[in-house]
Amino acid sequence: MSRKTYQKALNEALKQEMRRDPHVIVVGVDVAAGYTSRAEDAPDDQEGGGMLGATAGLIQEFGAARVIETPISESAIMGMCAGAACTGLRPVGELMFVDFLGVCFDQIFNQAAKLRYMFGGKAKVPLVIRTTVGAGLNAAAQHSQMLHSIFTHIPGLKVALPSNAYDAKGLLINAIRDDDPVIFMEHKGLYEQVDEVPDEPYAIPFAEANVVIDGDDLTVIAFSKMVHVAQAAAQRLEKENIHVELLDPRTSSPLDEDSILESVEKTGRVVIVDEGNPRCGMAADVAAFIVNKAFAALKAPVELVTAPHTPVPFSPTLEQAYVPSVEKVAAAVKRTMAYPSARA
Amino acid sequence: MPLSKNELMEAYRRMRTIRTFEEHVKIEFERGNVPGFVHFYVGQEGCAVGVCMNLKDSDSIGSTHRGHGHCIAKGCDVKAMMSEIYGRRTGLCGGKGGSMHIADFARGMLGANAIVGGNPPLVIGAALSAKTLGNGAVGVSFTGDGGANQGTTFESMNMAVVLKLPAIFVFENNGYGEFTSHDYAVGSKDIAARAAAFGMPAVKVDGTDFFLVYEAARAMIERARAGEGPGVIEVIAKRWHPHYLGDPETYRSLSERQALSQNDPLVKFRVRTVQGGQLQAQELDRIDEEAIQLVVAAISEAAAAPFPPESDLLTDVYSSYP
Amino acid sequence: MKGPIYPVIVPRWGMTMEEGLLVAWRVEEGARVAAGEELLEIETQKIANTVEAPQAGILRRQVGQAGQIYPCGALLGVIAEHSVPEEEIAAFVTEHAQAARAEHRDLSAAAPSKLEVKGHVLRFLKAGEGGTPVLLIHGLGGDKNNWLFVQPLLAQGRATYAVDLPGHGESSKDLTGINSFKDVADVLVAFLDQLAIPRVHLVAHSMGAALALDLARRYADRVASLTLLSPAGVGVAPSPEFISGFIAAKSRREMTAVLKMLLADERQVSSDMVNELLKYKRLDGAEAALRRFAEFLSQETRPASEALAEVKSKVHIIWGTRDSIIPPLNAGAFSSNVRLTLIEGAGHMPHLEKSARTAEAIEAALPQEAP
After folding, report:
1. Separation CA B44–CA B239 (nearest Å)
2. Phi/psi of residue A136, each to 5°?
3. Which of A63, B227, C260, C304 is 20 to 30 A from residue C141's alpha carbon, by CA?
């Protein structure tokens, strides 16, 4: 166990699974920092690999047959990974930015997601697509989205959103061992996040929410980087004697409905924090579920703190206003606590 | 290497079975017994069988929405296919896929694909598996002249060359991508010629001649198995039926449709093998009859088979959930 | 001086703790307290726990204030009888504050070490120096951190080693070559050999006790004394419901339910405790290791008389009165050379639940050594 970054945790997960199972391969643009065609030139030290370095050191250890760099052809990449998955390999494909899903979505949602069902259970697609998500790096509209709700909507796909280094390693190991297609969404702003991460391999099951903070007054449910925003808000609110319970579902599909209900039944008040856009988003999805299943327990309407219905703007001041902030979360919590008196 | 007598009989059997299967399904569809859409492979039998006679169960193929022919050519169970088309629980896919998603992984048939251009990326994936696992298998993608213009096809061709994958792209030029003629839609007017620009060899053959297809495929497949990389085969064979059953085919002239049956791959095969002395007419006749018996039995069994229960709606979305 | 004066100080829980927040006093200044009574709550980044009165008396002074952070060793309160004059208390406060701080700084904040022994990597935490070392052995599913509150106290008198058994904590999970408690005991002896430690005081908890008994029987010359906490292996079978529940628990809910059986006060089952155990169980090989050890444990059916018969060293058994996992035997079950200390109000984990009392009991029974 030692303190590691999210990036290092992902890298460790990949290495340990590739060592354990020779069927695991890594595929994508730049995954070997340009060395697939000349693996013997790859430097010994852990240099480069992937847009954010998560695949560093893999080609040196596993060679070009298992660390496959490709031309920029996302449809071919994702489809090739799906085809390889249903014929004996366990590929971990990389979709550099989730925003690129448009150019390869058919292979993901019509092919990979549906092969098992359409073929009456005879196909198995043990595929992982790792992708980076999220705003905060001024990367603008086409490199900053979340889009997790789109994948969550598709039957046949699983979606994981680790919020910290410990979860990143355990969820990625679980994703690689899982026999279904998993969209593994890594928030770009979390790559430097540090946490105590065991050196040994371990798998965190899907649909197991993490209770980040125990509390009795109100339930906050947050995804990915918003867990940290919510945590900061919770610490502030603690000083005002509001004790928030913070849940990180870890996976949006499957969703840990039991833990959500347990918490809501205890507190009766809910704020959901999500960086996605509001229409048909995860916040709306979870809110509908809560209202449907736990209506009697609710003491106030469910509050949703999300990005607005806009693309992600470039200018730093605008981007800051786009992403849910600590202030907005704290305000939503206070409104909910004050209900029915304070309703914006 | 010339085909043995058994192989010749098998080739004819598969082609005849395809023909009989399609003709009977047409009748059943017109009677209202088959749900959804069907797309017939009649006239193109030589293509699927010519290629698949070079393949084993461990080789993979991907097909299009017009997939019955490839399925039968790859050795899939005809009765289970019929049940699938009828949407019954005993179907190859438990009734969950239907005509356009018919598959049998045990036979290396990775599925008919309802998305034009949908299978080439999957097939290069199968080729990647074969290369990585070192089992000498190949992946063969069947695409129409319509799918030849899809981005996924171009990406897959380039990817196959870059990664030197044992993948064969078979373009079945049946003259039409849906309702649009090949001559209009393929800007260069020559699908096979594109291969060179991608960096792989190509061959173009008359798809109504089983033997020409077989030979072209054999060479390309052996080359791929030997690790020399991908290739393209363009097979030319008009489809006899409209794009889907119900299509009024206003885009085809009457004379064109009338000329089709003069280029029948089954007749050509019979003439050559009987005149060449490799097979006897009676042997082929017997195969014709057996094919009819098989398909008729398949239909009656399918029609009597149970539909999937409502509980099957929710099964096999995932291996496990959560 | 008209009577002893006892300091109440900030404990060092675990080797990395530097300071703690005094959350609240449980007792008012001037109140009479019993030995072991909970005086105040301290919180660090990792844990929250209470500090108990080291001795009975009057809480003469609350030196520490709620809401303030104090370094380990700092004086928080003073216990003495009414007969001790005010001036002496005041002088004590001034003097002691500096001395205590210096003493605790000597215990260097150590990081765990590791050693490869017979093909197994063992992680362990060493604290303290000199004398005959204490080897702390945890129970099923536990690890060296179970000794968090107790090791620093014992380390004041001698070297102490808290070890993660094979399959547990951060030690390697592959149990190849380990088919019985004998094999585990052999690994521990090899561990001592590698560190050139000729003799140890074994202090072992629960399943660890069964293990320690085997070690003490076969390596009598290596064992100076045997202290067994809530012991398995003396004829009382541990609750099978607990063991199977613990092995099966996969979610927070399940683990919380199981851990409530472990402690006398359910409220002490903290989120952190639950999380740490879930994290351990997720490690590759952990669950398989637990099953294996549970199997070994199920074979320990000898009654106390037999189990202790071949042990040559002194034996001290410490048991929580409210232990529902391995309910305590009474003194009559043991021969007279076995010392029995009952910890009032503790469940199966007296070293966590009543740590000061337990440490004191352990210390008191350890044979004295010349400095």
Report:
1. 6
2. 120, -5
3. C304
Query: In the 8-state DSSP scheme, what is residue B309?
Result: P
E strands in A98-250? 128-133, 158-160, 182-187, 194-197, 210-213, 218-222, 244-248
In chain C, which residues have their Cβ closer than 8 Å to the Cβ of A259? 252
Cis status, amide bond into A254, omega within 30 of 0: yes
The beta-carbon neighbor of A200 closest among C251, C271, C284 is C284
The pTM is what? 0.89
Q: Does C251 touch chain A (CB under 8 A)?
A: yes
Which of C192, C196, C235, C247 is closest to C215 using CA atoms?
C192
Identify any residues that bridge with C226 across adjacent strands, giving them in sequence order.
C202, C315
- Are the beta carbons of B159 and A116 separated by less than 8 Å? no
Q: Is the ipTM of this complex over 0.95?
A: no
Query: Are C284 and A262 an interchain contact pair (Cβ–Cβ within 8 Å)?
Result: no
A 10 A CB-CB count for B226 gives 10
A71 and B139: CB-CB below 8 Å? no
Specify whether the CB–CB gap between A301 and A271 falls below 8 A.
no
Domains A2-197 and A210-338 share a fold: yes
Q: Is A72 on the interface with B (CB under 8 A)?
A: no
**A86–B122 C-beta distance less than 8 A:** yes
Q: Is residue C166 classed exposed, middle or buried when 0-12, 13-18 and 19+ CB atoms within 10 A define those classes?
A: buried
B163 touches chain A (CB under 8 A): yes
CB of A177 less than 8 A from some CB of B: no
Which residues in chain A (253-272) have CB-CB distances under 8 A to chain B? 254, 256
Domain boundaries, chain A: 2-197, 210-338
A87 and B126 in contact (C-beta within 8 Å)?
yes
User: Who among A203, A214, A259 is closest to C282 (CB)?
Assistant: A203
Helices (H), chain A: 6-20, 58-62, 74-85, 105, 115-118, 148-153, 165-177, 226-239, 257-267, 282-294, 316-322, 326-338
Positions of A annotated as catalytic residues are 143
Query: Any chain B CB within 8 A of the CB of A115?
Result: yes
Residue in B61, B73, B45 with CA at minimum distance from that of residue B109 = B61
Residue B166 in contact with partner chain A when CB distance is under 8 A: no
Interior angle at CA A209, CA A208 and CA A213, nearest 5: 145
**pLDDT, tens only, B4-48:** 999 999 999 999 999 999 999 999 999 999 999 899 999 999 999
Closest CA to C194 of C275, C113, C271: C113
Chains C and B touch (3+ CB pairs under 8 A): no
- Is A116 in the B-facing interface, judged by CB distances under 8 Å? yes
Alpha-carbon span A155 to B34, nearest angstrom: 27
Q: Which domains does chain B have, with CATH numbers?
A: 5-314 (3.40.50.970)
Size of interface A-C (CB pairs under 8 A): 30
> Do A86 and B106 make contact, defined as CB atoms within 8 angstroms?
no
Does CATH number 3.40.50.300 belong to domain A210-338? no
Mean pLDDT by 10 residues, chain C (371 residues): 82 78 92 90 83 90 90 89 90 75 53 91 94 97 94 92 97 96 97 96 97 95 96 91 96 94 91 93 97 94 85 92 93 85 95 92 83 52
What is the 8-class DSSP label of residue C8?
E
Q: From A253, which residue of chain B is nearest by alpha-carbon distance?
A: B322
Q: Identify the CATH number of the domain defined by range A2-197.
A: 3.40.50.970
Question: pLDDT tens digits for A30-72?
Answer: 898 877 777 777 777 666 666 678 999 999 999 999 999 999 9
Contact B322 A207 (CB under 8 A): yes
User: How would you class B26 by CB atoms within 10 Å of its CB: exposed for 0-12, middle for 13-18, buried for 19 or more?
Assistant: middle
Contact B132 A122 (CB under 8 A): no
